[in-house]
Amino acid sequence: MKHYEAYDGTDLIAEGTAKAIQSKLGISRNTFYKLQRKGKSGDDEGLNVIQSDLIPEYAVYKGDEFLFIDTRENIIKKLKINMDSFVFYMSPANAKRDGGERLVIVNLDKEVD
Fold this sequence. Notes:
The protein is an alpha+beta fold and 113 residues long. Helix content is 37%, strand content 32%. The chain has a three-stranded antiparallel sheet. It has a three-stranded antiparallel sheet with strand order 5-4-6.
């Protein structure tokens, strides 16, 4: 998943996926892509968006016990699971079922309200 940073001049005002930035700034997809083209051109006056090289990290828990932090690809390899299982371990449904022994994966780059 691509990660973006939105700036007002040189001040970072939002970061995350395209959809998250659109929501946070209250802009349309078309406006987002216009701001991204502006950012690619090097124009740092006003609003602009650039793609970041940030790779999201995730925390892995077994119940309340913290196990480790890593990238999605490394977690899948370490736990010997597939992508569907990874997504399930991140789901609210899995967290609700947790009786203290289930694996739970938390996206550390996602804001929690």
